[in-house]
Fold:
Amino acid sequence: MKTVKYLLSLVLVVATIISCSQDDDNAIDIAGVPAPTNVSALVVIIPDNSGLVTITPLGEGVSTFSVNYGDGTGNTSGILQPGESAQNTYEAGIYNIAITATGINGKTTTVSQEIEVSFLPPQNLMVSIENDSNISRKVNVTATADLAISYEVNFGDANNTVVSGNIGDEVSFIYDMAGTYTITVTAFSGSTDTAVYTEDFTVTELVIPTDAAPVPPVRQDADKISMFSNAYTTDVNVSSWRSSWSTSTLTDIQVAGDDTKEYIDADFVGVEFYGADAVDASAMEFFHIDVWTPNATTFRVKLVDLGGASGTEGEIEFAGIAQGEWVSLDIPMADFIAAGMTSTNSIQQLIFSGLPTGTFDFYIDNVYFYRGASAPTMPTIAAPTPSEPQADVINMFSNAYTQDVNVSSWRSSWSTSTLTDIQVAGNDTKEYIDADFVGVEFYAPDAVDASGMAFFHVDVWTPNATTFRVKLVDLGGASATEAEIVFDGIAQGQWVSLDIPMADFVAGGMTATNSIQQLIFSGLPTGTFDFYIDNVYFHN
Structure:
């Protein structure tokens, strides 16, 4: 497992270097790459009374390894490539081997690992076999034994898959199918005799959501109080999403890239936000939460206000809640009041519970209070009509001007997002949904000579972007020259007219503006922001 992780990390480092060099030909700061991490070794002994031990170093971000055998001879393995092993013969005793991992920039990490070599059979073999709580059909095994140095697990699947590990370390395997399998654990010392444990174990299918919760609608800050959602700025400092008096196991996971909270084997779960972090929901009309459960038959939501002399609370029950799908609960605050709450201006606890008691699982996302209707997700009025004279404009996209630039693509093949040409109040507009970055291409002979222009203009409307960026790329010289202008906190739900001085692009690093061939839009939140554009042109 760790060897695979190392190989992936090395590929990522190399890919990053290649990508960066292709993108901007900048020198890579190799010196900034950290020293190797998670360095250890898999140690396996041959059970033939020979004392022959095989050592396989492991780690992440490693270029080469070396191993000092720690047997007093000073002997080492020499240079080992990732995945290679070394062997050494030991007498009976306890040894500390030293594993040195070297990164691509020469930085090293050295760790010491104790091994015990014995020619007596392993004793007191203890084995733990468990289903993983987060990954379906994954089984984790841990074995300990006196005098043992290593162990292996035959997971009893159709291929009789065998995985080895150091004694005391965890080994894992993911089955193709749930079911009952005979798992055999064998512990090894240097003796020809081994210790063996066998168990018929039931592998479970963990049912979890595969699609993210619905994206909540855009709302003005004054109309919502967000506790947990990637779609909104967080407004509440939640001290605990699983209080000390809760049951269940809480894990923060991602579902289709969306942050989600997972609760396993729940009875009741308390969420706490006391004192100064209390929520004043007296102006809010609804409490919202998205819930997904594979097995709950009943789900309850309780709010507790602790602002008065004594607490006041109300609980709403959803019997027969749908299983295996996201359920959006929009609970009127009036229902909590009807259930017994006498105030909602100092809410400090949120409690989930349900049936079957102690065994139901659930996932939550988008936890917030809100009022009023949601903000529009697309413009309903056209962008402002520009007023610059045609003679002072190089027009790329606008109903107000004659087209001057033959744009070959308003969404290049290397872009993200979905592009749709729409009309807003009769005006041609380009719609980009779920964007990360969008490239607009107009290569030679359609390149733009903007050396005589003073400004670049675009009208932008976004329901959810927190940051919007505009980059121009000139490809006319021997190497590309570019600059990007960033607009943090761009206004949402309205047309924003950006007139960016060309001098700002020059100050940002562009050394030429007479052969501009790419226009790139990007922003935050990455991969999920939407935007609309109109009136894209250079002007004087």
